[in-house]
Design goal:
By secondary structure, the chain is α+β, with helices and mostly antiparallel strands. It has helices spanning about 25-100, 110-115, 175-205, 210; strands at about 5-10, 20-25, 120, 125-130, 225, 230, 240, 245-250, 255, 260-270, 275-280, 285-295, 300, 305-310, 320-330, 330-335.
């Protein structure tokens, strides 16, 4: 057995005493080995801790960046929603303009006089179209969604599904892919709408007299209480065709002409009460019933927004309101199609 030892002498320079430490060589080697192993382990722990610390800092940075991207996404989505709402309003406005000015090649009288159109509701019941939904367009008339470009690849990458956490692989509706598709569709639709508006403007420029004689505003400031179409009569309790719009307002509220024309009737009617009828030419006539006062006379030329009467409760009426009708070739049509200033 190796009994080799190593002696360490420790001498103090103050008292002159000497201390001696005798250590076995085997124990010294073992101690040095343990120290080296401990130092390596400590260094590895330090390196690992530094790595974890840097990873934690990076995670915090990525988390903050992710929150910022979420906020920016919400802002972009909000602006996109506003853009889509604006496009829907433009679409409805153009539909009404095309309808009342007959810029299409179809017969104007037939298109305006067909009255309410049935449509199937969510429960399968037939609903009446009053023109307030901004009009429709067939699927074939809508532009196809353009294919995604190479720069949009980042939007179409699906995030990995965390199956261990029980996450289901269901595609969300508010992700970058759907946002990119909506943006592509809106950009293309904006181009189509711009071309349509330019075409419509060129057509309308040639029809100024027709536009001036076409009803296009709300005749009185109030709220709609009864729409065009079949309704339960407040007098008989039976379904009856209502040939116009009822706009409730305070008694004496001004009623204005909705287009240029000539007064064809100004007097009392048993059903309409005090009634004003205006002939706008082109087969279009407007009626304003249940008025309290009439400020025009037969044969008088009228311009759009001229004061013609005031709201009342005369004739067969249940309260102060203006009964507003639009007739094309003596066929009642939905006046909502002619209200562009809503």
């Amino acid at each position: 057995m190796d009994k080799k030892t190593i002696t360490f002498l420790m001498v103090s320079n103050r008292k002159g005493t000497t201390h001696k430490l005798v250590v076995s060589a085997a124990w010294l080697k073992a101690g040095v080995s343990l120290f080296i192993v401990g130092a390596v382990i400590s260094a590895a722990c330090v390196v690992d801790y530094v790595g974890l610390l840097s990873q934690s800092i990076e995670n915090k940075r990525l988390h903050a960046e992710n929150e910022q991207l979420k906020q920016q996404f919400q802002v972009v989505e909000g602006k996109l929603n506003a853009l889509e709402s604006g496009l829907e309003r433009v679409k409805g406005f153009m539909t009404k303009l095309r309808l009342i000015t007959a810029v299409d090649t179809e017969d104007r009288t037939l298109k305006l006089a067909i009255g309410p159109l049935p449509r199937t509701g969510s429960h399968g019941d037939a609903e009446m179209w009053t023109g307030t939904d901004g009009g429709r367009e067939p699927a074939s008339a809508r532009g196809a969604i353009s294919a995604p470009g190479s720069g949009d690849d980042v939007f179409y990458q699906k995030p990995p599904t965390d199956e261990l956490a029980g996450e289901l692989a269901v595609e969300g509706q508010r992700d970058y892919a759907s946002l990119a598709i909506r943006m592509d569709k809106d950009i293309q639709e904006t181009t189509v709408r711009e071309a349509g508006i330019l075409e419509l403007w060129e057509s309308l420029s040639e029809r100024q007299s027709l536009l001036a004689a076409t009803p296009s505003i709300k005749p009185v400031q109030g709220w709609f209480t009864s729409k065009f179409g079949y309704r339960v009569s407040p007098f008989t309790g039976r379904p009856t065709m209502h040939n116009g719009l009822d706009i409730a307002a305070a008694p004496g509220t001004p009623i204005y002409a909705t287009a240029d024309g000539v007064v064809s009737f100004a007097g009392y009617d048993p059903g309409y009460g005090k009634l004003v009828s205006i002939d706008h030419g082109y087969g279009v006539v407007t009626r304003f019933g249940h008025t309290s006062q009439i400020f025009v006379e037969v044969g008088q030329k009228i311009h759009r927004r001229d004061l013609i009467a005031s709201v009342g409760n005369t004739g067969r009426s249940t309260g102060p309101h203006c009964h507003y009708e639009v007739r094309v070739n003596n066929v009642p049509v939905d006046p909502h199609n002619y209200v562009l200033d809503e």
